[in-house]
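Collaboration report, partner site 2.

Our partner group contributed sequences for two proteins of shared interest, and the home lab folded both. The records are reproduced in the order in which they were received, starting with the first partner submission.
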Amino acid sequence: MKSNGKKIKETKVHDEDMHRMRPLSWMFYYLFLPIIATTIFAALALQILGYNVLGTLESHLMEIDGSHTQSTYASSTTSELDALHIQMAQKQLTIESLHGQVSLLNQELSQSKLDVVSEMSKISSLQAKINQLQSNNASWSKQAAIYSNMSSQQAVAILMQLPTREQVFVVKAMSASDQASTLAAMPPKQAAILLQDGA
């Protein structure tokens, strides 16, 4: 029975404590909590509508001692971040400029390679012509030696069968005295043509 009485007393004390606490909790749940929620929702709505709620709040917080240093630190960090963004943009422009220069240099290199190939083909063509001329000179010198061993009449009879151009080269390959005797044995008109063409 005593324990029952003790339990009843404890329950009464607990109920009294709860009654004392209830008015405070009632005030929190029915008064302060709705005010806080309404304030937050109103600030969000105004921010969405374009009002600078956060900026105003920040300026009011800067007036309070101690928050000014935090704001200064935040603004210096923001300015450093902006400076880094500017540097990064400048570096990006430099990189793009260098890529453009590399592209131009690659085009110039390709063009130079094409020019070198073209010049090499011209050189090989000229070399082939030189080789052909050297071969022809050897052939004309050989023919000139053969014609020099013949009489002028026989040499002219054979020379007249060759094209005019070859006649010029064969006569050129002869010695001066052989040239004179061969041209003297030729018809004057043909001798004049050969002399005019450089024999």
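Second partner submission, folded after the first:
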Amino acid sequence: MAYVSVNNNESIESALRRFKRKVMTEEIIKDLKKHAHFVPPGQKAKLKSQNARKRNRKRMRPMRPMNAGPGQGSNPNPNPNFNR
């Protein structure tokens, strides 16, 4: 649980910012959403395999070169018969 004590010369806004930061670092909201409803074991396994497949697909996706911006390294003219 996230606890924040407000000092005498500290504003409420700064204490609230510290509290929000603490909640985010402890991942309290994420945990609450995770435990909001019961997920059967079969459904958990199904979600786990779906996420693994998605991760693997992402890993196998070809990486775009970092220096290739829009228009670099690609054909700007989709019509190959067009000559300038």
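Feedback sent to the partner group on the second submission included the following. DSSP finds three helices and no strands in the chain. The chain has a mean pLDDT of 84.
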